[in-house]
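Good day; I would like, with your permission, to put a structural problem before you. A protein sequence and the structure tokens that stand for its backbone fold form the material at issue. Thank you for your consideration; the sequence and its tokens are set out here:
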Amino acid sequence: MYLHPTLIFQSLLDEDAFGALKVLLNDRVPTVQQTAALAVGRMASFSVEVAEELVRCGILEQLCVAMCASTLSGQLKAGCFVLKAVSRHTPQLCAAALDAGACPALVHCLSQVDAGVREGAAQAVGGLAQHVADQARSLIAGGCAPPLVEALREPEPSLRRAAAAALGELGKHDEDCAGALASVGCIPALVAVLRSGGAGGGGSVGPLTPDVINRVVRAGLSSLASIVKHSPPLAEAAVESLLFPLVLQCMVTESDEGVRRGAAVLVREVVRHSEQLAGLVVESGGIGTCVQYLAGVASLTAPPPTQPCAPAQTAPPSTGVRGGGATGSSVGSAVILGRAAAAHHGGGAPSSLSIAALDQDSSLEASATSFRGAARLPAIMTLGFISAYSSTLALRVIEAGGVQALKDALLDGTELGGKPCEEHVRAAVVWSLGQLGKHGAAHARALAQSDVLRHLMGLLTGTPGDTDDILGGSEDLRDKARKALACVLAVCDHIPALLALLPSAPLGVAKQVLRTLGTIIGGEGGSATARGAFLNCGGLKLIQKLDPTARAEVASHGNLALRNYTQSLGPTAFLLPCASGAMSSVAVGGGDEELGDLVGIINSRYPADVVAYSRPAYGLQLVTAANSRATAVLQAEKNSRIAAREQMIAAEEEQKHQYTV
């Protein structure tokens, strides 16, 4: 009969299982103590309520005291497993573990010779430090950091990985924690982990598979990113430890997707601090690496499945154990409780020497994900940070093909009619494009020639939340697109691209385009070449439709002429904001005076007859003039015929009069 794990644990608590295990933890036989500790750990990992009951029973204090006084590897491993199981739930449970003396016990475990004990202690430190900065400071002040740094130099890959992950959890909270880790040599040691992979200073203890090496490197990258993100001095310390170009090579040469993404995150955390650090990354080839990262991720295939971990070797059964019968019964009771707790995890009771493989915490390392959408985010942000500092760095991003790479990221998933990538990724791309094109005309021209402006405006004209619109998004995304488009349009001098936006531009964008065109054509720097180019590409005729008086001029020629004029605008008339904030297509010339003023500035740079020729009513005026002339000619002919007939009638009357006389 199947019983839900919750019922099983409730039954164990009702029978005072922790009380029985607390007695077994004081058993004189080490095997009994070890097995009881494993059962406690399994039960504590099930839920917060069970872990809180464990704390109330006072088992943690007893366990920490026993760990500080013991040198047995199995007992120490089991104790570390319990501390890790308790700390994974809430900050309150972590505080209870620290109050019970977990920090001295873990420092004692980290000083042991056995690599398995040190690995379990490192995992427990990472679990205790993951929640709150004060708890991480307590662990650092208690002396956990130096032995973790020393563990990074050990040959065992699993120990190096656990130590690197624990250092990342300790340093991720604030600058004080990260600075304390840097003061004990954490940053150079983590960089050495990236350089040596899974093999430590003393050589590997066994064959290093690619999966083992990648796990170690991923943990090192994640920890370095968690530390250097807090301040420029920490990032400079990583650079001085020869982080570059090593991390850039990881972005493009490694086959593991998790390593590539972790390297991209680390580069982003370095360049975001200062222009000097960004310049160093650029000189190391960082821009080309990020562009290659963005351009190549779409063709990556999924990595091969990881090889299963080899089963841990269990210790041979002990002979000559004191109190044989009682020992067997105690061990059996603890094993039964451990198996009941393990039912939730789908496994049996763990072996004493395989605690590291019991419950690997995936939060202590960067996970490998598919390189679509969000996987591109670190490189996108890196290009944005580099471009934001100066026009020189932005120009180097453009020369390296960054505009096309960012555009492809913006349209990721939409080429074949699919759904677009996540909204936060598109928001990052929009921000990066704005930083790239805001510096000057050359930068904005690069965006215009790549047809980026049209896609940015597509984010504005799409309905918020409309899944049918490929580039539709939330109001926040639309706001970011509006800001990016405004800063690019302010410096853009590519007339064809600016004119291409007008037929479907919202009112605010249309005004910005007209201001920019007025600067290009009508400002002090306006040249005859620019005015000729604007006229030849039909720009002067196009902007006349924005003049509020254009509709009135057409309407003066009759309703039929007005209807024909409105139909000639096509289905993509200029978009004006409604009261609700949405965009609706309305007729041009809605009475906005500022539009008329902006059009008038441009018109003033051309002769009056040229402007008149470009007006929408010019053709109607020609037709009216032609009709008036034709009417006058017809009327003159009619008057001439009437006069001739009158003369003929008068002549006939004269003849009749003479005949009568």
In short: Residues 39 and 338 are 4 Å apart (CA to CA). Residues 624-661 form one domain. The beta strands are 575-577, 583-585. The longest strand covers residues 575-577.
